[in-house]
TrEMBL record:
UniProt GO MF annotations: acyltransferase activity, transferring groups other than amino-acyl groups
InterPro entries the record matches: Acyl_CoA_acyltransferase (IPR016181), GNAT_dom (IPR000182), N-acetyltransferase (IPR051531)
Transferase listed as a keyword: yes
Residue span, N-acetyltransferase domain: 9-170
Designated name of the protein: Protein N-acetyltransferase, RimJ/RimL family
Keyword Membrane: no
Keyword terms of this UniProt record: Transferase
Length: 174
């Protein structure tokens, strides 16, 4: 199993045993407010989303990682998810989602930076896309810090998003 690490974070591919942690994340008040229409996912919806991520990882070689914050005693505390998905026109979508407890401390920027380096390095991607709901100012700020530029609005999966792009070779904080 491939893992990614920083001094603060440990990331490993999502697995079926992450279902409960992912469900808790999908019900987190901040996540519900910023990434859905104000309705938390049901357990079935959350499990379906996990199944989708696992299928995409198997079928496309792209996937989401569970992000854990390293604790001083050596424990790992689940903080959220971050990863890559196949998009259209040979682009790859980057996405991340963190609990309210984990927000506001740079964990999304740090983990997404690892994903960007992996996408442009090991995977040889040429373009990354980030889709963010208009009200989610925190995620827009993360993408801008990481060198993405806003490229208008897009409707994807029946939701309107602000679209951000970054091409391989463009700079940003990693």
């Amino acid at each position: 199993m491939r893992v990614l690490e920083t001094d603060r974070l440990f990331l490993r591919p999502l697995q079926a045993s992450d279902a409960s942690a992912l469900f808790q994340l999908h019900c987190d008040p901040l996540v519900v407010r910023l990434t859905t229409d104000g309705q938390p996912m049901t357990r079935d919806q959350s499990d379906e989303r996990l199944d989708l991520y696992l299928r995409e990882a198997r079928d496309f070689g792209l996937g989401f990682f569970a992000v854990f914050e390293k604790q001083p005693n050596g424990d790992l505390l689940f903080a959220g998810r971050c990863g890559l998905r196949s998009f259209k026109n040979d682009a790859v979508e980057i996405g991340y989602c963190f609990s309210e407890r984990a927000s506001g401390r740079g964990l999304a920027t740090e983990s997404a930076g690892l994903m960007i380096a992996d996408a442009f390095g090991r995977l040889g991607c040429q373009k990354l896309v980030g889709l963010v709901r208009p009200a989610n100012q925190q995620s827009q700020k993360v993408l801008r810090k990481l060198g993405f530029t806003q490229n208008g609005m897009i409707c994807c999966r029946n939701v309107n998003y602000r679209s951000f792009e970054r091409n391989n070779g463009e700079t940003g904080r990693l």
